[in-house]
Design brief:
Porin; 16-stranded antiparallel barrel; 4% helix
Length: 401
């Protein structure tokens, strides 16, 4: 992380002498660990960096880079006699990278933005274009926003063109030949993702900020895990996971934030409901409290509760084995199963601002530490039922000048 902060400073220094340019350089490192009762731990190490600067009175540009270093083990087959045993599990490690950049124009009444990102790993490629707009009205007490994102993704898969039915499809065993011309053992599927996000912000009082909005997303393309097997039927067949190619997702949210100047604190609350065309339904509630402990130290605490039902074609492991699939689809994905999660977290922030009468190259320094604990409550026999919780640690720094 220290090396990445240094690199950002080198990128930002050419702008430091320009009085019109405000520059921010930020870096964060996250470590996610999800242990299991059977001994395997999934771990994700995620460093990220970003630089942004204003150009003139209204234009701004930004650029960033992030990496996911993923390792762990997952069951080779969902629905085997021991559904989530590590014996016979598939051990994996991968590196996901993404670079992004964007431009924006902000005036007192309107704002426009556009961005592009490219993400890559051994078996997946993603090009993403995004545009956004906002407008203030009614004496700037309301802000209407609209964002649209288009993903052009490609996923590598085992060549199953000779399979007579989905039950004959075999999983991808290695990504070694992915995205190479002339290889006949793998194929590439295209995935198109369209996301539309409207929002409305209302300054209800000088202390209360309210926001509402939603998300409409359409995913069209190969959405199965190319590696996952599912035990289907009493004959002992273990074909590749098979889910529909088309998924339409809808969500609505409401958020409020209240300042408490007498306590030098602020509280916020959020509620979200979700449903999609696979009949997955979910609800999320979250609350957070932030408070100054001194002139530069801020402590925060948050909690979140999430509950979801399974998709219409989801069955528990023993049900897939004894009853077979629901229609032509089957899955071993925990994200598509009934699930209840609880999160609790704390955050400590050190914020140091330069006094106005003093002049220097650094205007603001921010350091933060965050720790979150996740607790899962899946039904017995659900995917990854041996993973009952996880932890997330994050450390970050931001320089503004």
């Amino acid at each position: 992380m220290q090396l990445r902060v240094g690199a950002l400073l080198l990128l930002a220094l050419p702008f430091a002498g320009d009085a019109r340019a405000g520059v921010e350089a930020a870096s964060h490192l996250s470590i996610f660990r999800e242990p299991s009762t059977s001994g395997a731990t999934v771990q994700v190490i995620h460093p990220e960096t970003e630089v942004s600067t204003t150009l003139g009175s209204s234009a701004a540009v930004n650029a960033g880079y992030e990496v996911d270093l993923v390792s762990g083990a997952t069951p080779a087959v969902y629905g085997s006699s021991q559904p989530d045993a590590v014996s016979g599990a598939t051990h994996f490690s991968d590196e996901r990278q993404q670079a992004h950049g964007g431009v924006s124009i902000d005036t007192p009444l309107i704002g426009l933005g556009a961005g592009y990102s490219y993400g890559w790993e051994h078996d997946y490629r993603s090009h993403t274009l995004s545009v956004s707009a906002r407008g203030d009205f009614l004496e700037r007490n309301f802000t209407l926003g609209l964002a649209y994102t288009r993903n052009f993704d490609s996923v590598c898969d085992q060549n199953n063109q000779g399979a007579l039915s989905p039950l004959d499809r075999q999983p991808l065993t290695s990504a070694e030949h992915c995205f190479r011309g002339g290889e006949t053992d793998v194929v590439t599927h295209k995935v198109a993702v369209h996301t539309l996000e409207p929002s409305l912000v209302w300054i209800a009082t000088p202390r209360l900020l309210l926001q509402g909005g939603g998300t409409v997303q359409v995913v069209d393309g190969f959405q199965s895990s190319p590696y996952r097997r599912v035990a289907v039927g009493s004959e002992g067949r273990t074909p590749q996971e098979h889910v529909p190619d088309l998924r339409q997702r809808f969500a609505l949210f409401a958020r409020g934030r209240l300042a408490l100047p007498e306590l030098r604190a602020a509280v916020s609350a959020m509620g979200r409901v979700y449903r999609d065309t696979w009949d997955l339904r979910a609800a999320t509630a979250e609350g957070e409290l932030s408070k100054y402990l001194g002139p530069s130290l801020i402590v925060g605490a948050r909690g979140r509760y999430h509950r979801q039902g399974g998709v219409v074609f989801f069955r528990l492991a023993d049900q897939y084995r004894t009853l077979g699939p629901v229609g032509q689809y089957w899955t071993g994905d925990r994200e598509l199963a009934p699930l209840e999660t609880v999160l609790g977290g704390v955050k400590l922030t050190y914020l140091r601002r330069t006094e106005r009468e003093r002049h220097g190259w650094l205007d603001e320094l921010e350091l933060n530490l965050r720790f979150d604990a996740f607790f899962y409550h899946p039904p017995a026999g659900a995917p990854s039922a041996d993973r009952r919780g996880a932890t997330l640690f994050q450390a970050g720094a931001a320089l503004r000048f």
